[in-house]
């Protein structure tokens, strides 16, 4: 632990790092500067500090040893997409998918807010590594923050401290992230990205993706920009290993929008019959995936994170027992409710809340007891399903890529793209209902290409072209699929049981990759017939299965037209190959649809 006065900041052998810390300290005027080493002693010191300040509350230490509750400001409970900006010299490079400001104007605007904002506070220098410390696929950054809660979360979510600093000093470069909680006024809140400078500035929020800058800001927005330049992919995807009864493990990466099931799929527990047969599921990552073609032409993937920042509500013994087991100890809970004996509580758990997420006595008239975007922060190593390969320096080879979203109608349970180009179109065309993970209306259907709408750090048209560029001689690309766990019946209830039973769909997907599973060809792709899926032991009406696997060509026509209009919004940055593919499918749908 090195705690120094603001004027003594020569704490790294890297001159550019010292100079940056110095410049930031001059601007923000903290009382003290603390270089984080990531040690247990430091973590304990920070926990005690936060307990003393009321930033953390101890939960029931008998049932939940090492667990704490943090309540964020009620106006600061989710990502703020309208205040998240990508600041490139040329506006077109950020694209219509991003909010934009010219870099000089952006710096001036946000630096005015940083001016003196750390007076009375400690400035923490947080060196971190995204990915295993020894992996060539990993990338480092330094976050400067005045929030001990952010430091504590970064320690769980990244490889934070001395080892990361050593790698940064060796490499000589790092992503710069400057963060302050400011005054938490939503009118003085911005999350700005400067991909051309490899830097991030965030002020006015202490919450999740707005403040833990290694996560969405670095590992997706900045990394996607670098990945485009360097020939790899930075994606909003889980990574999961599926071990079959023969003992072979295949890895799958899946992109679902925020709060649409990544953590749950990554930690899936097989249904009873599958367990008996010897199927096992291994978690490699639950939110972010960095992939790069290996010498064998396959895509090799790492999880750049070291922990889970997972959605609490809905996590239960029935839906995600792995997650529940993971959060029994050493977990930071944010904005959950508590029970009379001080245990964390959220909707979906047994028992009863007595105090809600805002610290008020629980009253159903005030809405849910836990905030719908309440979260747990926990080390990935605590998951019973944590893969032995999760920290491998070379990553894991990906056999299938899955896209999916919340689609109450039209979109079948699963289908397979005809080829890579079609698969990129399927990803680009993704739509999903909005969730509580971002501020704003919930349940509104919007396009969310590759689940990256809030996270792609550059023009989506260029991003689609980058995806297409992986299809080249020698490539052994994964097959691409689309799933929809959220199809609803006429009664408004989900048709598919989801969770553990999603393994039935994964089995078909892997069967397709190995050339074993059957399907019927349709204009939107290959779709299983009911007999092609293993539905043994599943109590589901035949009509529900038929509806889940139906392809309504007449219904798809306007959807495919809307996809064409959407692609056109990226102008001449949209690759021709994608528009040609969209027109091909449109024509096939028109031929298949009954005449009106
Ligand atoms: P982020 O961390 O925001 O990126 O979310 P995520 O994609 O990891 O979503 P998560 O797995 O946390 O799930 C979000 C919500 O969807 C939870 O309330 C889950 O209970 C629910 N959910 C997950 N999988 C399924 C499923 O298969 N079926 C249904 N009906 N709900 C699901
Ligand atoms: C998401 O919103 O996709 C999350 C949570 O995973 S946050 O870290 O806030 O981005
Ligand atoms: Mn996410």
Key attributes of the depicted protein:
metal-binding; nine-stranded mixed sheet; Phosphoenolpyruvate Carboxykinase, domain 1; binds guanosine-5'-triphosphate; manganese ion binding; ten-stranded mixed sheet; globular; nucleotide-binding; Phosphoenolpyruvate Carboxykinase, domain 2; binds sulfopyruvate; alpha/beta; GTP binding
What does this molecule look like?
With about 600 residues, the chain is α/β, with parallel strands linked by helices. The protein has 3 domains: about 15-55 and about 85-230, Phosphoenolpyruvate Carboxykinase, domain 1; about 235-305 and about 385-555, Phosphoenolpyruvate Carboxykinase, domain 3; about 310-380, Phosphoenolpyruvate Carboxykinase, domain 2, CATH 2.170.8. The chain is about 30% helix and about 20% strand. It has 17 helices and 30 strands. Strands 1, 2, 5, 6, 7, 8, 9, 10, 11 and 12 form a 10-stranded mixed beta sheet that branches. Strand 7 and strand 8 (about 140-145) form a beta hairpin. It starts with a strand and ends with a helix. Bound molecules: guanosine-5'-triphosphate, sulfopyruvate and manganese (II) ion. Manganese (II) ion binds next to loops.
């Amino acid at each position: 632990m090195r705690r120094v006065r603001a004027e003594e900041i020569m704490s790294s052998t890297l001159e550019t790092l010292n100079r940056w810390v110095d410049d930031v300290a001059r601007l923000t005027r903290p009382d003290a500067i603390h270089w984080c080493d990531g040690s247990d002693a430091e973590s304990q010191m920070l926990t005690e500090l936060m307990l003393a300040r009321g930033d953390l509350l101890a939960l029931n230490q008998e049932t939940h040893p090492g667990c704490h509750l943090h309540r964020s400001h009620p106006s600061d409970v989710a990502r703020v997409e309208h205040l998240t900006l990508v600041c490139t010299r040329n506006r077109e490079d950020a694209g219509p998918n991003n909010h934009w400001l010219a870099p000089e104007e952006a710096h001036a605007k946000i630096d005015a807010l940083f001016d003196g904002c750390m007076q009375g506070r400690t400035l923490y220098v947080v060196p971190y590594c995204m990915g295993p410390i020894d992996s060539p696929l990993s990338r480092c950054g330094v976050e400067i923050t005045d929030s001990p809660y952010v430091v504590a979360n970064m320690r769980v979510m990244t490889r934070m401290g001395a080892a990361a600093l050593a790698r940064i000093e060796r490499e000589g470069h790092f992503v710069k992230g400057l963060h302050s909680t400011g005054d938490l006024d939503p009118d003085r809140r911005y999350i700005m990205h400067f991909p051309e400078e490899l830097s991030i500035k965030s002020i006015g929020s202490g919450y999740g993706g707005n403040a833990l800058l290694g996560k969405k800001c670095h590992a997706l927005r900045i990394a996607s920009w670098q990945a485009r330049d360097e020939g790899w992919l930075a994606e909003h995807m889980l990574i999961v290993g599926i071990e079959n009864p023969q003992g072979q493990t295949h890895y799958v990466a899946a992109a679902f929008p925020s709060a649409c099931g990544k953590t749950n799929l990554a930690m899936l527990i097989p249904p009873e019959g599958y367990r008996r047969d010897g199927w096992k599921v291994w978690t490699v990552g639950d939110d972010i995936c960095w992939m790069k073609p290996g010498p064998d032409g396959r895509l090799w993937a790492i999880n750049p994170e070291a922990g889970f920042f997972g959605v609490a509500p809905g996590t239960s013994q029935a839906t995600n027992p792995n997650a529940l087991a993971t959060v029994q100890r050493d977990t930071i809970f944010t904005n959950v409710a508590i029970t009379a004996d001080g245990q964390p509580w959220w909707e979906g758990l047994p028992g009863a809340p007595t105090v809600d997420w805002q610290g008020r006595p629980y009253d159903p008239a005030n809405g849910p007891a836990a905030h719908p975007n309440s979260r747990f922060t926990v080390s990935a190593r605590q998951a019973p399903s944590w893969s032995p390969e999760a920290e491998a320096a070379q990553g894991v080879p990906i056999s299938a890529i899955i896209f999916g979203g919340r689609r109450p109608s039209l979109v079948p349970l699963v289908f397979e793209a005809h080829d890579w180009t079609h698969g990129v179109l399927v990803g680009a065309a993704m739509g999903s209902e909005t969730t509580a993970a971002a501020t704003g209306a919930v349940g509104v259907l919007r396009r969310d290409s590759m689940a990256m709408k809030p996270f792609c750090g550059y023009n989506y048209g260029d991003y689609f072209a980058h995806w297409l560029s992986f299809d080249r001689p020698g490539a052994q690309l994964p097959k691409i699929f689309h799933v929809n766990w959220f199809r609803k019946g006429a009664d408004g209830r989900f048709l598919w049981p989801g969770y553990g039973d999603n393994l039935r769909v994964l089995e078909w997907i892997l069967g397709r990759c190995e050339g074993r599973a059957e399907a019927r060809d349709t204009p939107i792709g290959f779709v299983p017939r009911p007999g092609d899926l293993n539905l043994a032991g599943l109590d589901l009406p035949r009509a529900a299965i038929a509806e889940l696997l139906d392809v309504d060509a007449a219904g798809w026509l306007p959807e495919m037209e809307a996809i064409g209009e959407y692609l056109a919004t990226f102008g001449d940055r949209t690759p021709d190959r994608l528009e040609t593919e969209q027109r091909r499918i449109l024509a096939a749908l028109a031929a298949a649809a009954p005449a009106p």
